[in-house]
Amino acid sequence: MSFPSDAAIAQSAKLEPITKIGEALALSPEQLEPHGRYKAKVDLAVLASRRVERPRGKLVLVTAMTATRFGDGKTVTSIGLAQGLGKTGRNHCLALREPSLGPTFGIKGGAAGGGYSQVLPMEDINMHFTGDLHAVTSANNLLAAVVDNRAYFEYRSRRKQKREPKAEEMNPEHIAWRRVLDICDRQLRNCRLGLGKLSDGFPHDGGFDITAASEVMAVLALARDRADLRARLERMVVGWTFGGQPVRAGELDCIGALEVLLEDALAPNLVQTIEHTPALVHCGPFANIAHGCNSLVATELALHSADWAVTEAGFAADLGAEKFLDIKCRQLGHFPAAVVLVVTCRALKLHGGVALEAIKGEDAAAVERGFANVRVHLDNLRNKYGVPVVVSINRFAFDSDAELATVKRLVEGEGAEWALFEGFARGGEGAVELADKIAAAAAEGNRPLRPIYELELSLEDK
After folding, report:
1. Which CATH superfamily is 132-262 part of?
2. Largest CB tally within 10 Å, which of 148, 196, 348, 405?
3. What is the pTM of this model?
């Protein structure tokens, strides 16, 4: 019998009203701003009061070995682990990144998990959700228009007066702020803008990025509150003058307008997993060009609302986890209590030299060769950052017993704990072993900060 599709599983699930999900986090209906029956914004005032009134729970970070291009299950593992914590009677909350349309309609697909480890309503979360991506798009593109407007009037002045540029004027060929669109459209990546008559603008190179790649998304995800958001928006570099000095957004008299556009987007979004675990899904900067984590406010709210907070970081441990630990954890003030390192036979075979089209075939020798990748990630996490690690072996239907036995043997050879994760096929029941192993690893609580570089170092040294 074939396994049902993610969509079929999601559509057959019975959802609880979002107010009932909020009760699990001690959120009253008055503290929620519903967007329909099954999703809501959480009033930021809740976090402000809980920072003072409630201690933090234990933070668990889910990261991974270097994956295949299809992804190897960080989000599924995060959701499954949260459900597994629920199955074992542990008070918990999930904090995930917010999907964007570009990857959803590309080869990667949505970011709401899969199988019986999904956040719901899946279609809403993967599409327009509560409008956060639209707000980021609008704020980014308003700033782009303001930047170009300043450069335009300086350009027009030079044309009319037939003069050379002044040192303090913006250099049109060094405008750093690009427009964004929440769709992958390669034709718009690089454009020549401002063509036509003088009143239509001035010619210069530009283009579009995907919305999640906007610096607005990154600062939104790191902001502690509205005042912090404003300060971060003001510091963004949008271009350079002819004299070689940076031009910052705060110089352009538009920060108030950006704040208004982002006012609702700063509040975290509450949804639920397929097993009714509360999930705060908010912000989604990419780890390859930003820090790759969900919002600080969502993570903090999870920490101050439950005994266990599960979150994830994008890409592999050398990218997303590094930025989580070196950037986001500085804002939190501590490291996680434990880290989950997701490992798959599929990714190990790829690193062991197996071609992608043959990746489902059995090859325990390739699994062993590819384990060198896992060793590096384990060494970084355990020895450089000093955090306890549990390896989660994310089982796929085509994994052979010999391959799984090889992974277990190699992990044990490194002196690391492992758990076989079957959350995709079995939901929380398939993550009970991982939940128990993580609980044991996190017994000492959240770890003290141990970043691998100091903030005072130069960019190159970092």
Report:
1. Domain 2, N(10)-formyltetrahydrofolate synthetase (3.30.1510.10)
2. 348
3. 0.95
